[in-house]
What does this fold into?
Amino acid sequence: MDEQDRADRHAEIHDAAHAQRLLDDPMLWQAWEDLDDAIREKWEFSEPTQNELRAELYRMLNASKQVRRALTRRIETGKLASEQINMGERQS
It folds into this structure.
């Protein structure tokens, strides 16, 4: 592993730690839950004929889930980067 790869892996580990802090933050989770609940409530009380509104609400819920998945992927990438660094150190 060259120096640039090592620097990239360390950056991934740093990003993963930040993502983990965000996912561990109870205030952020509460905000996500409140947002998702409000979107679902608006969906439940919307008329079935309001296709544009329902499509927008679906996109909003999906975006909320995508943010959480992106943070989780960052954590997984950081774990892999850490393993790569450890393997490189053992091989040296």
In short: The CA atoms of residues 7 and 13 lie 10 Å apart. Residues 51-91 form the longest helix (41 residues).
